[in-house]
Every structure is written in structure tokens, then in C-alpha cells.
């Protein structure tokens, strides 16, 4: 039995005068510990799909189960990492990281020590009493990762978490997140517009078409690439071959897509 199952999901956005179809007949499965990226042109419903997986919205049609239960029943065990870090500026880094545990009623001495040890693991030792404004953008995203991982999520949802960073910092954080998720055996879904990022970090890539969003094609990342850190994977011939294949498919989708619908 797959860990995450999406069956014939469709979703509409309604306004007083119209209905916009964001997703239509989307089905896929993700195994526990797998890293899957959602890729596609603007308006293909990637972010809508991520919101459905998180339980933030219910699909209009179809179903989603995580470990054989609806996402809403796992609300405390789904981690969501966004493009912006959304750290509370008036709280210290330690207070920000422990906030999820506190809200879930799971903050105790053991969980606090575990969270602070993880902060040290990702290169942020000594910043616990500092405030977000005292950290660089890359350090803030690391802190956001620590906050997300502190609750020990079963599923990690990543919505373009590196897109606001400079390229060097982005590459470093790709490696860090990749290694952390592999070490802890986490299941992850990444939404990205970056083909290279999807190839370098994923086990599989789900390419969506737009208007409405449908699952167009699935790409398996070669096992030789999956063993490498994202930075190292980018310099291989297998990476270049898959990049060109996905690029051509994506170009074809964008050429054939009509007016853009909201995500």
C-alpha cells in the first residue's frame, strides 16, 4: 500500500459569476521515503495540488489519503515549507523553532533538546537567542527548515522554498534539505518551476499540463543520480539528458496551452 494516494482529484474555484477548473482527474501514488517534484507551466495547479495534500483545502472531486487516512487527520504531522520563511520577527530563533511543538502540545524537555540539536546539525549553532532580522536569507530558511522538522512530520511539502535565495545559497540549501530528508527517511513533495532543481532532488518528477491542470507525464530520475547530492548530480551526463527531455516536453505544453487559469 502506497503512503500517499491521490485518486481522480479535480478542483474548481468558484466566484459569484464563474467557476474555474484548476485540476482535472489527477491520480498518482507516492511511497514512504520518496521525494517527488511537481513541475509544469503556470496555471497547471501545482500549488492547488499541494494545498490539497496538506489538507488546507478539500478537492471538489476525488480523494487523497496519507497512510490510509485523509490529510486533515495528519494536520500535526505534515510539514509545510514555503518560499518565504515566515519567522515571527519578535520571537527568537529558538522560540520560532519550538512554536509548532508548543501549539501541538508536544513541547517537553526531550523534544526541545532534539529541535535544538537539529539546529546545530544544519549549521545554526549559537543563533538560538538571536532574532530573524539578525540572520541572512539562507540562515532564515535553515531556521524555517528546523521549525518544520521539529514536529517530526510524516510528510514534508515544499512550495518553491529556495526561489527567493541567491543561486549559491539555493544550491547549498538543496544539498542540505536532500541530505536531511534522506537521513531521516522523510516523504517529500516539492513544487518548483526549476527543472534542474526537480531532477537534482527527486526520485520522480510529475509533469502537469495546464487549463485545467492534469498529470501529463511522469519522469523517473535515474538511480545513479538519486545517489548523488543535488550539486554533484547537476554535472553528470544523465542529468543533462533528462533536463533536455523535460525541457522539450515543457516547451510543447506551454506552446499548446491556452489562456492561463489561476493556481
From TrEMBL:
Origin superkingdom: Bacteria
Q: Which Gene3D superfamilies match?
A: P-loop containing nucleotide triphosphate hydrolases
Question: Which segments constitute the ABC transporter domain?
Answer: 4-235
Q: State the organism of origin.
A: Lederbergia citrea
* Molecular function GO terms recorded: ATP binding; ATP hydrolysis activity
Q: Which InterPro entries match?
A: AAA+_ATPase, ABC_transporter-like_ATP-bd, ABC_transporter-like_CS, ABC_transporter_ATP-bind, P-loop_NTPase
Q: Which Pfam families match?
A: ABC_tran
* SMART domains recorded: AAA
UniProt keyword terms in alphabetical order: ATP-binding, Nucleotide-binding, Transport
What PROSITE patterns does the entry give?
Answer: ABC_TRANSPORTER_1, ABC_TRANSPORTER_2
Q: What is this protein called?
A: ABC transporter ATP-binding protein
Amino acid at each position: 500500500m502506497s503512503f500517499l494516494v491521490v485518486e481522480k482529484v479535480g478542483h474548481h474555484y468558484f466566484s459569484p459569476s464563474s467557476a474555474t477548473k484548476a485540476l482535472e482527474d489527477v491520480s498518482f501514488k507516492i511511497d514512504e521515503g520518496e521525494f517527488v517534484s511537481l513541475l509544469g507551466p503556470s496555471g497547471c495547479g501545482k500549488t492547488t495540488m499541494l494545498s490539497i495534500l496538506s489538507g488546507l483545502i478539500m478537492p471538489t472531486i476525488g480523494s487523497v489519503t496519507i497512510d490510509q487516512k485523509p490529510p486533515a487527520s495528519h494536520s500535526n504531522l505534515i510539514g509545510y515549507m514555503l518560499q518565504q520563511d515566515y519567522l515571527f520577527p519578535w520571537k527568537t530563533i529558538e522560540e520560532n523553532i519550538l512554536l509548532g511543538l508548543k501549539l501541538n502540545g508536544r513541547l517537553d524537555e526531550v523534544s526541545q533538546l532534539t529541535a535544538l540539536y537539529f539546529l546545530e546539525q544544519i549549521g545554526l549553532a549559537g543563533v538560538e537567542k538571536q532574532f530573524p532580522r539578525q540572520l541572512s536569507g539562507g540562515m532564515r530558511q535553515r531556521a524555517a527548515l528546523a521549525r518544520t522538522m521539529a514536529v517530526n512530520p510524516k510528510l514534508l511539502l515544499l512550495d518553491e522554498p529556495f526561489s527567493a535565495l541567491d543561486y549559491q545559497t539555493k544550491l547549498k540549501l538543496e544539498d542540505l534539505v536532500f541530505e536531511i530528508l534522506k537521513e531521516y527517511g522523510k516523504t517529500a513533495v516539492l513544487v518548483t518551476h526549476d527543472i534542474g532543481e526537480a531532477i537534482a532532488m527527486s526520485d520522480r518528477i510529475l509533469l502537469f499540463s495546464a487549463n485545467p491542470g492534469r498529470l501529463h507525464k511522469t519522469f523517473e530520475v535515474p538511480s545513479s543520480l538519486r545517489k548523488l547530492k543535488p550539486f554533484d548530480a547537476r554535472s553528470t551526463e544523465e542529468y543533462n539528458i533528462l533536463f533536455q527531455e523535460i525541457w522539450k516536453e515543457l516547451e510543447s505544453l506551454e506552446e499548446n496551452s491556452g489562456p492561463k487559469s489561476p493556481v
